[in-house]
Amino acid sequence: MWSPIIGLLLLLLPLAPSSASYIKYPLEGNVYPTGRFVVRMNIGEPLQPYDLDIDTGSNVTWLECQHPVYGSHGSPGVKRFYKPGPANLRVYCKDPFCASLRADLPGRRPRCPRKDPHECHYKIEYVDMTTEGVLVNDTISLSEGRNEVIVFGCGYDQRLKNPSPTQPPAADGLLGLGMGKVGFVAQLKAHGVITKDVIGHCLGGSRKRGGYLFIGDYDKLPSTGMTWAPLKKYGLHYSPGQATLHLDGQQIYANGMNVVFDSGATYTYVPTQIYKPLVAKLKAILGNALDPVRHHALPNCWMRRGTVEPFDDVNRPSGILTLRFDNNIVMTLLPKNYLIPVENNIACLGILNGSDVGQNHRIIIGDATMQDMLVVYDNEQGRIGWASEQCTGSATTSRL
Ligand SMILES: *[C@@H]1O[C@H](CO)[C@@H](O)[C@H](O)[C@H]1NC(C)=O
Ligand SMILES: *[C@@H]1O[C@H](CO)[C@@H](O)[C@H](O)[C@H]1NC(C)=O
Ligand SMILES: *[C@@H]1O[C@H](CO)[C@@H](O)[C@H](O)[C@H]1NC(C)=O
């Protein structure tokens, strides 16, 4: 009676779940003074390390680049430029990648120029800068011993909209984690490196540095404590939809606003209709524990009285912000999600006036607010999730 049992076992084996495929990278950085979180990637032949700003608000990955013909106008403070060779520059305008990149760009889709059919030119405008470049094709090392050729941008002209002398030096480029076929994660999925287009980041809070980023089918999501909302594409960004904002239960502004999650933004931005009453109410609440001071870092700062952490009293919680989405989905923000320590006893408000940067109609949740939180962008199931977590870095791990 052995053989039928063995036959049954052999039939069952292929049905056992396959192990998850994902890559987890350590992040370096902080909200203040660096203003960004970067992941180190080895790119090119021979491989060179580049620190890329992780940006869920951008579809395209690009490097600060020295182009053989167009030269380079880099962002301030860039130390390392990528230098493509002739073979890397052969991503043609009629290439499907170029077509989908251009389809993703807002505004009128430019035609392929007759003069330069052999290059894919793009220009992208972000909240605080513009970048201009051409697509290239080169090797990227994903984890130990695993290299892939992917398409990304050679950004040869970056311009800041409001350059400031206290600007920290720029990263070596940007890791585009937004949606779209040209996205880093979408390409890895198309190459069969990972099976799922899922991204997650955990940005370390102010007393730590770093955190981690994962891409793919990460099998260590907390089984409880994640809040999930349906992913609503809002223009170019990941969004859980519209929400109203409340401070200690009190609604700040009558109308709901679209909320987008953008790891490329250092701070959180709310339109002036929300900003003005929010700052007034926060000043009243924080004034009970902190003294207002002026500091060059940000517009609204306070100094701690004494040595006690003023907001750690769990019995009398105050200064709690909540974003309330449809279907009773709530995002809770503690003072550590909006107060940024800039010196020993001084913390500043990490929420800024969006109207100052042309953002009048939406709330942008930036790094300041996503600290010590695991945020997951699940493009497979069309959902976005978050959970409170102590974020610390670790070595690159991969299960592929
Ligand atoms: C990129 O390079 C690889 C390997 O040389 C090649 O197979 C692929 O077609 C190229 N992709 C594009 C979009 O040029
Ligand atoms: C990113 O790609 C998506 C899907 O193709 C598109 O809707 C969106 O406009 C693109 N965003 C940017 C910034 O190009
Ligand atoms: C927010 O920015 C807008 C545009 O610059 C400005 O008109 C408004 O006064 C600002 N609001 C506050 C409260 O600073």
From TrEMBL:
Question: Which terms under GO biological process does the entry name?
Answer: proteolysis
Annotated active site residues, numbered on this chain, are: 55, 262
Q: Please name the GO terms that the record assigns under molecular function.
A: aspartic-type endopeptidase activity
Keyword Protease tagged: yes
Which superkingdom does the taxonomy of this entry point to? Eukaryota
Residues annotated as signal peptide: 1-20
**In this record, what's one Pfam family?**
TAXi_C
Question: Can you tell me which residues the record assigns to a coiled coil?
Answer: none
Q: Peptidase A1 domain: from which residue to which, for each copy?
A: 37-387
Assigned keywords, A-Z:
Aspartyl protease, Hydrolase, Protease, Signal
Q: Which family does it belong to?
A: Belongs to the peptidase A1 family.
Q: Can you say what this protein is called?
A: Peptidase A1 domain-containing protein
Please report the organism this UniProt entry assigns to the protein: Lolium multiflorum (Italian ryegrass)
Source taxonomy: Eukaryota, Viridiplantae, Streptophyta, Embryophyta, Tracheophyta
